[in-house]
Design brief:
Blueprint lengths: L15 H8 L3 H9 L7 E2 L5 E2 L2 H15 L4 H9 L7 H13 L5 E5 H8 L5 H9 L3 E3 L4 E5 H10 L6 H30 L4 H39 L1
Antiparallel strand pairs: 1-2, 3-5, 4-5
Helix pairs in contact: 1-3, 3-5, 5-10
């Protein structure tokens, strides 16, 4: 269960306090996970200060998602122990997305402090406006907010992406349209396969296929996007 704490050279190394804030957990939680072997040790820098990187952030997000699904620490340890040792932060994010897909849609009403705790950072008016545009957060009664738990973490990460809000919303529209079309075609394919089966068999197949299809889509999309970006960068540097 190792990871490269300096995988992303563009992101500075984090102290344990910064890691906890970025992941939306407490320092005590970080140290507890580390003591259980769920997190790899930090890189020891000058003055013997431990430094953490994107791999730690991604692994913490995965652990938190597994806990939200009701897994015990022992089960989480077994799950993480089965993962390849050289997974990148992007690979860990894919695993977390697959795990999150097992859960039903969840919208909660939370206070402003709780929202910021979950976001792992203070949220200014522009941040809230951007999260609202992504349908991750909506104003509730008083000083409360309705939060789409599945979208919040993604929305928070997009706050630091150097793209205009119009570009992000346009990208969201493209992803929604194509994912909806893919889901429709796959549903039609599976419907043809199970048309003659018992209802219980259909539900069982759905439960098994859901995470597998999500992981397949994420993996193929990641590879396709990497190829597109590689071609684009090659063309722009030529």
């Amino acid at each position: 269960m190792t990871t490269d704490a300096t995988t992303d050279a563009a992101e500075p190394a984090l102290t344990v306090d910064e890691l906890a804030a970025r992941a939306g957990v407490t320092v005590r939680t970080v140290r507890f996970y580390s003591s259980k072997g769920l997190l790899p040790p930090p890189v020891i820098g000058p003055r013997r200060v431990g430094r953490y990187g994107p791999g730690h952030v991604a692994r913490l997000a995965l652990i938190e998602e597994l806990q939200r699904q009701g897994m015990t620490l022992a089960a989480i340890e077994r799950y993480l122990g089965q993962l390849p040792a050289d997974l990148s932060p992007h690979d860990l994010a894919i695993h977390r997305a697959v795990v999150a897909s097992w859960a039903p849609d969840s919208v909660e009403t939370v206070s402003r402090p709780e929202l910021e705790r979950r976001a792992g950072r203070p949220l200014g008016p522009q941040d809230l406006e951007r999260l609202a545009a992504l349908n991750a957060v909506a104003p509730g009664d008083g000083d409360t907010f309705r939060v789409d738990c599945g979208l919040l973490r993604l929305g928070v990460r997009l706050l630091d992406v150097p793209l205009s809000q119009d570009a992000i919303l346009a990208a969201r529209k493209v992803l929604m349209e194509h994912s909806r079309a893919a889901a429709h075609e796959l549903a039609q394919l599976f419907r043809g396969e199970v048309a003659e089966r018992d209802t219980r068999d259909v539900r069982s197949l759905s439960a098994h296929m859901h995470p597998l299809v999500v992981q397949a889509l994420l993996t193929m999309f990641q590879r396709s996007l990497r190829e597109e970006l590689s071609e684009w960068l090659s063309g722009s540097s030529g």
